[in-house]
Amino acid sequence: MRSSRLASALPLAVLACGACYAYRPAPVAPAAGARVRLVLTAAAQIVVMAPGRAETRRSIPDVLEATGVMEASSADTVVLRLGELRTAAGAAADVAADVALIPASLISRIEERRFQAGTTLLAGAGFALIAMGVLMTVLIVSILTAAR
Known about the structure:
Layout: H1 2-16, E1 21-25, E2 35-49, E3 58-73, E4 77-87, E5 90-91, E6 99-103, E7 107-115, H2 117-147
Antiparallel strand pairs: 1-7, 2-3, 2-6, 2-7, 3-4, 4-5, 4-6
Helix pairs in contact: 1-2
């Protein structure tokens, strides 16, 4: 009974392995909707706003990088729906889903989040091999215990 539960859980575990993503330098400005990380030239003060609420502007000092979804960009400003702001002291609190207006002059580089097919395949294959090894061990122990 125990080995059948393990065998039925194996495909679910492989699916739950997940996918690997990495941030890679973007050759051109990413389109709206792209998940990006903006690395700033130096620690800067960034203004963030909570959309839909009046008078919610606030400044976050010492920002080094910002991650989120690109909303829009122009020659002088990038509009980013934030996921996270990293400061010299760590992650800034309560900024997820806020919108930041970041001057283009402060941006050192833009990196786009991309799916890593090769890494995901290797991680999935490694996980599957480990799971199969555990399954085989459990089956062998079960057979040997039942043979006694």
